[in-house]
Amino acid sequence: MQYNKLNDFEKSVIENKGTEPAFTGQYDNFYKPGTYICRKCNQPLYSSKAKFDAGCGWPAYDDHFPNSVNRSIDKDGSRIEITCSNCGGHLGHVFEGEGLTDKNVRHCVNSVSVKFVDESEQLPPIININETIILAGGCFWCTEAIFKQLRGVVEVTPGYTGGTLKNPTYEDVTSGNTGHAEAVQIIFDPNIITLNTILEIFFATHDPTTLNRQGNDIGTQYRSEVFYITQSQKEVSEKYILEISNNYTNPIVTKVSPFSEFYEAELYHKQYYFNNKFNPYCMFVISPKIQKLMKEYSKYISN
Ligand SMILES: [Zn+2]
């Protein structure tokens, strides 16, 4: 299966986070009833009912379909970027508190990122080719910050997995008695980034030879473990660990286990590094890892 073909201009916006010039897009001044879907993967994003004239030169919506749009801090450090939750395609930015509509939200979207389907027409099927893997490699503030940087990674969610307690809280997991590991659920597009590359970066950014420990973080919740969803992921992971085992003086203790349940972490753990850059843990533990990543793996970093 493949995503919809994009021309060079569409690619520059959707895949390279560009912006179409204001007042030039096909839907800037367009108000027919229907649905706006992602141009790359067909996921429905916005209803025409949510569209309003913000006068800014780009289509504006004050609501989106549930779970269709992800938010993250833009590379400029201040704006909130919005992307399609299925394919990771760049849509634009979201602004709150402007008082333009009752919902007080403005999704400022490039026309070229979406495609209008008239209400009289049938919506095309959603194209989904992403893969999901769950990795535990110590504190999830670290692993989330690292994997969020990578091109082809659509979504990174911190959470808990591999234990027994249902719906654990951070405090439950920190006690070390629930069997859960701090982990990240990584959704990626295998056409852009392979599982091998994800594993390469995973092993380069944590110590797979210390049992239940990463630096000063000690406990089973900080263990190193790959949770696979497919048989192929199991094989790729085991083979990769075997290949790199000679690079380490001590044996690799990383386990490769079948995935069972993943519990999303509390909201304040999300984008922790980006929101708490001056926290000493972020400055002294996470920042050096991010710097290493930027230096040694720059070809995989999204721009
Ligand atoms: Zn999409």
Walkthrough of the structure:
The protein has 2 domains: 8-118, Metal Binding Protein, Guanine Nucleotide Exchange Factor, Chain A, CATH 2.170.150; 131-300, Peptide Methionine Sulfoxide Reductase, Chain A (2-Layer Sandwich), CATH 3.30.1060.10. It is an alpha+beta fold. The protein is elongated and about 65 Å long. The protein starts with 7 loop residues before the first helix and ends in a 7-residue tail after the last helix. It is 21% helix and 26% strand. The chain is built from 7 helices and 17 strands. The protein has a 6-stranded antiparallel β-sheet with strand order 3-4-8-7-6-5, with no helix packed on it. Strands 16-15-10-12-11-17 form a 6-stranded mixed β-sheet, covered by helices on one side. Helix 2 (140-147) packs parallel to helix 7 and helix 4 (195-204) crosses helix 5 (231-244). The longest helix has 17 residues, at 280-296. The structure holds zinc ion. Zinc ion is lined by residues 38, 40-41, 43, 84, 86-87, 89. Residues 38, 40-41, 43, 84, 86-87, 89 line the site of zinc ion.
